[in-house]
Amino acid sequence: MDEKLTYSSHSSTNTHIPTMIRPRSRPSRRVVSFYILALLLCSLLLYHIEILTPIVRSDNNYLHPKSSPNGLRISSNETVRVALEAHIMSKCPDARACLRDLVVPAMEKIGDKVDFQLSFIGEIGADDSITCKHGQTECLGNILSLCATNLYPNSTIVSLGFTTCMISSYSDIPARSLVENCALEHGVDFERLNACASEEGKGLDLLRDSVSRSNDKGVVYSCTVRLDDQIRCIRDGGKWKDCEKGSTVDDLVADVDKLYKSFNQGEL
Q1: What is the pTM of this model?
Q2: What span, in angstroms and rounded, lies between the C-alpha atoms of 97 and 105?
Q3: How far apart are CA 48 and CA 60, in angstroms?
C-alpha cells in the first residue's frame, strides 16, 4: 500500500536573539560630503532614466495580474482579463471530466485572457470544521491542490497541471506515489508541497477560504464553471447541464474572446 501524506503535529517557533551592536565612530565631514554628492547623482540618474526610458512590456505579463478598480483583473499592460473559475471536489469523476474535457484544453487557448481560479466545494461546521463529500482523503487532495497554487501563484499551468494529474487518478488520492509523480511531472517541489499540506493551520486555512468562497457563490455541484461571475456550465452525474451557450471547448473559448474584446475596446 502506498505511503500516505500526513499532517505534522508540531509547529516550530524561531526565536530571534538580538546581538549587541558596537557604536561606530562618527564619519568625517569629507566622507559625509561624498555620501551626499553620491546620493544626489543617483537621484538625478534615476529621474533621467524614468523620464526618458520607454516602458518595456513582457509577453508574459499575464502571469502577474493585478486588480482593476471594478474588481476584474488587469495585466501589467492594463488590459482587463476575464474571470474564469471552476468549483470542484478532488475525488469526483465529474471534476475529472470537467478539467480534462473543457477547462484544461480551453486554458491552452485563452490562458492569457483570463484570470483563472480553482475553488473547492465542501461544508464548514459551526465549530469551523471542514467536511468533504468523499471523506477526509478528499479534503487532503483539495489541500494539496490549493498548496500547489499557493506555492506557484504566477504559474497557472503548473498548479492546474498538477491538480489535473492527481484528479485523473482521483481514487488514489492522496497516495504518496501519485502525489510525487504528479509533482515531478509538472515541476512542483514535493517537499515544499508536503510541508504546506502538513503545516499546522496553513493547508486547512487555504481549504477553509476556498470552501467559503464556493459557499458564498452558492455553488453545490462539482464541477461548476463560472465565467465573468456567472454560471457558464455544470458537469453533474456524468452529463453537462445549464450550458446555454454550449459545452465544448470552442464554445467556451468563443465566450471568453467575446468578453475579452468587450472589456478592452480601447486597447484593440
Answers
A1: 0.72
A2: 12
A3: 27
The residues near 205 (Cβ < 8 Å, ≥ 6 apart) are none
The residue assigned the cell 469523476 is 93
Tens place of pLDDT for every residue, the chain, 268 residues? Answer: 444 444 333 333 332 323 222 333 445 545 445 444 555 444 444 433 232 223 222 233 333 343 333 344 545 457 899 999 999 999 999 999 999 999 999 999 999 999 999 999 999 999 999 999 999 999 999 999 999 999 999 999 999 999 999 999 999 999 999 999 999 999 999 999 999 998 776 999 999 999 999 999 999 999 999 999 999 999 999 999 999 999 999 999 999 999 999 999 855 4
- Which residue, chain included where needed, has cell 470552501? 211
> 230 — alpha (psi -120 to 50), left (phi > 0) or beta?
beta
Helix, strand or coil, per DSSP, at residue 51? helix
Instruction: Give one word for 165, left, alpha or beta, with left for phi > 0 and alpha for psi -120 to 50.
Output: alpha
Supply the DSSP string of 248-261, one letter for each residue. SHHHHHHHHHHHHH
CA–CA separation, 93 and 170 (whole Å): 8
Q: 68 in the Ramachandran plot: left (φ > 0), alpha (ψ -120 to 50) or beta?
A: beta
Spacing of C-alpha 79 from chain mean position: 20
CA distances to 61, 75, 78, 231 from 67, rounded to whole Å, are: 13, 8, 10, 21
Q: Before 174, cis peptide (omega within 30)?
A: yes
